[in-house]
Hints:
It is a single chain. Helix content is 17%, strand content 32%. The protein is an alpha+beta fold. Strands 3-6-10-8 form a four-stranded antiparallel sheet, with no helix packed on it. A three-stranded antiparallel sheet has the order 9-7-11, with no helix packed on it.
Amino acid sequence: AVVSTQSTGEDNRLEDSTILVVGEGYEDDITLDNVRGSTKQGTAFVEDNILESVTADIGAVHLNFGDCAINELHQMTFTLTNHSSTDPYRFSWTPQSNITFVPNTGHLHPRCSKDIIAEFKAGEPVSFQNQEIPCKVVKITFPQPLAQVADWDDRMMIIRWISKKPRKSLGSTADEERVASPSKVTKKDSKAEKEKKAAEKVEV
């Protein structure tokens, strides 16, 4: 952006001067927005660009859960947004004790956002002051077009029930019985015919 401003000296045209100001602005690809808390004592606010350890500068969210009861779950939510029109990203939160993020790992497609839930639960008295929790954000690519790639995060699972011992199908058992039955009947019939022939010989 270019801004031009002019300064004029009163009653002296030689003191007129023009100042040219040149500046460059940019928009972060990934931002954290819409911080919301579910606890009465908890507060939260966003401060831009104070996390330098992440791959992309996404700023930082300050979460204050306040005084929390032991073994009681407290939640706060915020939105992770991808402002890029072409690049998908992968995000992953560093594991922490007593604090978890849902989802913890996932993908952000271009011009898409995802709600993140920050959960705090402690089984014993603990105190956190300015605890940093880095989020790693990296640009990713897919072998197929983005339109063919479904959204994903670690909440999405497919459950399959797998039997440890394979069962014999009912069809195979029935077939075996059908095959075995005629042979048994044939053997009985042949034995009866032998006894009948032997009896006929005795009578003669």
